């Protein structure tokens, strides 16, 4: 065994071996993989091998697409057949919402180049003659989809990696991992130590145990997953004898199971409600090819619906039931990317569709390690999308929920019920009493919108689809009332959100943004360091500035609002969802000579946003500071008193109205909240939620990460020209951005008016066409109440980014005429903000 290598990959399942293969493919041949038993002796061995392309996450969709293409080429490259069967995949729909989900998905698929066909029930039956069609509204089909033999796939990747110089050490267990003062890692095994530059953890169900070795609480806990294989069925054998094609993979989404042919019989895999998490403390040291006792009671309801749909399934005996551990994260997507706090420690864990994702995840992670950046926007799988709140208790609840909802309708505004109420700002109860319907971000509860007093949906309103598992609304509140029905179209919240937005525009509203990520950057080197990494100079003392951290390639990694508290003291605010992500980047880039100090202060300060034309009159009643425009202009900040409480008031907001963000010691929040509402009665102060904020920001063409800004778009493509100062000297990504521009920008950020919308606005990820040509994708969309227009923000081919250009946006499968309009359709001159 080597004692020195560039990278050590831990774990010889499909995911680890693919990472090794791709590192070698990138030219790093001095790479090794360590596996405690035989390759595939973890989860990979008992996987059913399905390769579903369907995924509503942009990041995961890209990874899956890459995998399927790679698996096709492996035999030619390695000489090993991985058992790929391209038999197609059909997903059935029994409800209108499910059809909407498919239509929404088909748009996303179109933008990433995945082919999807729509089928009628009769067309499905032609392909799957063993199936009954009752209740089927339609289906989608991926012709490219199929399944593979997971162990053969892993062996093919292993041979490919070895051919390129990588080494694999089997029957070798990693027992410890430690970073040396010089940054190198020492990976200790039962066969000796290996010193390396980078470590990749790809240890499947052992992820938490591996994490413990380096002090990481890895947000992964496995859940039990079962599938049943039947004896051979005469009808299937007859089809085979006649040389008829395999019927393909059938997914009865609304009953939460999949089925395919297996060796002349059938294989049924349900995602059951009540499947328990397992290996909470990791598998035992002896674990190898491990399966659990099957639980037939849990399978019974799914077997019943399977027999109803495919009677043949009930006509033959069960050959074997597999019950194995499948790794889950709280949102069901894997964690692929850098570990927080640790340099050169990488995670490729939490894969619940790891056979499907292995190719793509290995490819992008290798790119990240070797080139310093992935080329696909990996925000949807970044390990830092969860924070320290995602500990064991949270994970137990969320992973079981993620498993049970694999087949649920993934409504864009769905807010899941497990582990709710975990992170509450102090004004939570007050907001609840005002009718808040909460959503979550990064574990925080945040008002999404406000229902009028006594508002409640009836059973009839809810119009629950006739399905086994899925609900179209949040769990009832403490009062037993249900207030929101989710939809891909305008939901029942639509008019209430509109009323909130217009109230902010005409009067004054209050929004809780305590979830914002906050950091203080201080020290003699602070200003210089920030300017060396961000796209702008730091603001003058007392001023506020938007600034960006770019990737090495010139894409956009993070956005910060910077307030200059003093010449060497800065307060940085960024998106709540990206707290760990943004702070991790700053920490890893910070100088180590003690000239700069970083303090994470997210939970120290709450944020209340007061916005609207009456906000000055209201706030002036509570403070002795002069709030006049002359004394307190737009984009400045000051410490002010609100009654007896001290706040940092910044004259900025994300809604385009006169207003202040009040950053306050979080323990004073309710004091401030009460004062504002007492004084606010005279001005008709009302709370507003994140949905109204989103509508208001669309009308200002304000951008979000990872929608209008992402690592895949050059900062210039996202229209950030005025926030990128080329004159100020070097900064992170500067030269690469210039080179990108030189090579030619492929996208242009635009704002569009969408015509003829009656019930479904764009949401983001819809394809944009000129005739039949795909010319862009939307990044956000919704209704703008102040301008009374359906709006979309989009990335469009640059030659089409002219005012008045007409294109078509496909929303839920229906083409809508859309016109490029000037950015900031509401108040382009910022008169309200400056007033
Ligand atoms: C019943 C069932 C059906 C499934 N069906 C599908 C499907 O149809 N399609 C699909 O895409 N996915 C499916 N999956 C999921 C799939 O099996 C996993 O996502 C995938 O195998 C994960 O691969 P991995 O490489 O991450 O983990 P694993 O295959 O578990 O590999 C991790 C490896 O790390 C090794 N290891 C751990 N700790 C150490 C250590 N300290 N030192 C050395 N080695 C270590 C382990 O021995 C193990 O071999 C299914 C899972 C189950 C349980």
- Largest sheet: number of strands, sense, barrel closure: 8 strands, mixed
| Oligomeric state of this protein | single chain
Low-confidence spans: pLDDT under 50, at least 5 residues? none
Structural class, by secondary structure, is alpha+beta
Estimate the helix proportion, in percent: 25-40%
Q: What molecules are bound to this protein? A: flavin-adenine dinucleotide
Characterize the overall form: globular
The total of beta strands comes to 37
Mean pLDDT rating: 96
- Taken as a percent bin, the fraction of beta residues is 25-35%
Rg, Å, rounded: 27 Å
- Tally of alpha and pi helices: 20
Instruction: Please report the distance between the alpha carbons of the first and last residues.
Output: 71 Å
Describe the protein:
The protein has 835 residues and is of the alpha+beta class. Helices cover 26% and strands 27% of the residues. It is built from 20 helices and 37 strands. The model has no long low-confidence stretch (mean pLDDT 96). It binds flavin-adenine dinucleotide. The site of flavin-adenine dinucleotide has 40 residues, from helix 1, strand 12, strand 16 and helix 9.
Q: What is the topology?
A:
Layout: E1 4-10, H1 14-25, E2 31-34, E3 50-51, H2 58-78, E4 89-93, H3 96-112, E5 117-119, H4 121-127, E6 138-142, E7 146-147, H5 150-163, E8 167-169, E9 174-179, E10 185-189, E11 192-201, H6 207-213, E12 221-230, H7 234-241, E13 249-252, E14 257-262, E15 265-270, H8 296-309, E16 318-328, E17 335-338, E18 345-349, H9 354-371, H10 392-404, H11 428-433, E19 436-441, E20 444-450, H12 459-462, H13 494-506, E21 509-512, E22 517-522, H14 526-533, E23 544-550, E24 556-566, E25 569-574, H15 579-589, E26 597-600, E27 605-611, H16 615-620, E28 637-642, E29 645-650, E30 659-665, H17 669-680, E31 686-687, H18 690-698, H19 734-743, E32 748-754, E33 767-770, E34 773-784, E35 789-796, E36 806-811, E37 814-821, H20 831-834
Parallel strand pairs: 1-2, 1-11, 2-8, 4-13, 11-18, 21-31
Antiparallel strand pairs: 3-7, 4-6, 5-6, 9-10, 10-11, 12-15, 12-16, 13-14, 14-15, 17-18, 19-20, 21-27, 22-25, 22-26, 23-24, 24-25, 27-30, 28-29, 29-30, 32-35, 32-37, 33-34, 33-36, 34-35, 36-37
Helix pairs in contact: 1-5, 1-9, 2-5, 2-9, 13-18
